[in-house]
Amino acid sequence: MKSKPTILAFNKYYLPGYRAGGPIRTLANMAERLGDDFCFRIVALDHDAGDPTPYLDVHRDCWRQFGKAQVMHLAPADVSLRQVSQLVALANPDAIYLNSFFDPVFTQRVLWARRLRCISKTPIIIAPRGEFSQGALGLKSLKKELYIRLTAATGLYRDLTWQASSIHERTDILCNLTFVAPTDIRVAMNLAPLGEIPTIEEHGRRIGEPLRVCFLSRISPMKNLDFALRALATTTAQVVFTIYGPQASRAYWATCEAIIANLPSNITVRYEGPLHPRDVRQQLSKHDLFFLPTRGENYGHVIHEALSSGLTLLISDQTPWLEINERGVGWALPLDNEGAFAQKIDEFSSWDNHLIASARRRAFEYARERSEKPEVIEANRDLFLTAIAQRSQAAGNLSSQKAGR
Questions:
Q1: pLDDT tens, residue by residue, 287-317
Q2: Is the per-residue pLDDT at 86 higher than 70?
Q3: How far is CA 172 from CA 105, 190, 247, in A?
Q4: Averaged over 85-95, what is the pLDDT?
């Protein structure tokens, strides 16, 4: 008899990778914070996003402990319908957890295995990870619209439990997927990292020095770096803008480079490449303002990391972090006005070290508060327990029907 329920999760990338950003951190945080209640088994590719070279010292096709989760890394050629079916059969999970709607391998093959009855009727939970936000659907919109219509016709995504990380994401799912009922969706916010957030050394800005602004995310149209650069072009403040993150698209980076080449002399841009998670807080703490005009985030782990590094935020209003205005830790602005972002940068550049230090303390406190919310942990725990209970109830009903014949 199993001591605790098994959750078999499929995600394209996982630890020790980090370049895919939020989904990796979401799953890792979930495994660490709920690992005493559930046995997490996670299946992912054997390499990081944007790097086809397999991880060093990671053995394929076997389970290996990463924190509180067991992880199996597979070569891309090994993620077949047959392999997926065998993995599910051997793991015998109490629930399957999918981390994308559009993933053609780690979501669709699992669902096709179910449709073809290659796997048992295990409850399946799917987390779209913000894929139905207006900003996300606006990218490759025709292709996504056709796929949604196709899946509606085939019924591939029916009889699933859907996780929305916020009320806004719940609305996005219902507006775009007519075959999903409101009762199919459970709202469970993504979990922040486990543990206390220590205050780190402050790097105060001297009078007359440029404002230190940073961007950390994948460099892709979704994260809207080109918008940030255009907004900076209209500021009057002296700014050093440091960009951290992997280049998800060379063509998009070329577009950003063209904007950088034409920025006025008061703006200096530095590209530092990807940041390893262990270095994020230390590097971010060297800046004053975190600038991320993203087109949409279902959570935004990097926003939490910026707060826990003591930074004031300048972000779009397309994230769940809308209360930052009233909490005095930054601004969440609509994307229809680049000038409003530029005005906030100019305004912030006039703050003295006393005001910035006060904002840093508020950012630390807010990050700690978000990390420790017990209701968020309970919502995530209930997400799995409810799905598992429904399976048990269905099995009991089936047994009763057979006995009554």
A1: 999 999 999 998 999 999 999 999 999 999 9
A2: yes
A3: 23, 17, 28
A4: 94
Q: Which residue has the tokens 């295990």?
A: 122
Indicate whether 367 and 378 sit together in one domain: no
Are 79 and 11 found together in one domain?
A: yes
pLDDT of residue 397: 46
Residue 100 belongs to a domain with what CATH number? 3.40.50.2000
**Cβ-Cβ contacts under 8 Å for 178 (sequence gap 6 or more):** 152
pTM value? Answer: 0.88
What is the phi-psi region of residue 268: left when phi exceeds 0, alpha when psi lies from -120 to 50, beta otherwise?
A: beta
* Longest Cα separation, the chain: 85
What's the token pair of residue 256? 């950003």
Each residue of 162-204: pLDDT tens digit? Answer: 999 999 999 999 999 999 999 999 999 999 887 656 566 666 6
**H or E stretch at 141:** helix 141-154
For residue 107, give both structure tokens.
């979501």
Domain membership of residue 141 (yes or no) is: yes
The structural domain count of the chain equals 2
92 in the same domain as 232: no
Count of Cβ atoms closer than 10 Å to residue 374 Cβ: 7
Q: Kindly report, residue by residue over 240-265, the tens digit of the pLDDT.
A: 999 999 998 899 999 999 999 999 99
Tokens 């109830």 sit at which residue?
A: 393
Apex CA 130: angle with CA 214 and CA 384, to 5°? 120
Q: Is 118 exposed, middle or buried (0-12, 13-18, 19+ CB in 10 A)?
A: middle
Q: Which two tokens stand for residue 161?
A: 């439990």
Give Cβ neighbours of residue 158 (< 8 Å, ≥ 6 apart).
179
**Are 353 and 396 contained in the same domain?**
no
Is there a domain that residue 197 lies in? no
Same domain, 148 and 260: no
Examine the domain organization and report whether 290 and 359 are in the same domain: yes
Residue range of the domain that includes 72 = 6-189+373-403
Strand, helix or coil for residue 79: coil
Does residue 1 form part of some domain? no
If asked whether residues 124 and 90 sit together in one domain, one would say: yes
Which helix (H) or strand (E) is 84 found in, with range? helix 81-91
CA 276 from centroid of its chain's CA atoms: 16
Q: Are residues 169 and 108 in the same domain?
A: yes
User: What is the C-alpha radius of gyration for the chain, rounded to an integer number of angstroms?
Assistant: 22
**196 found inside a domain:** no
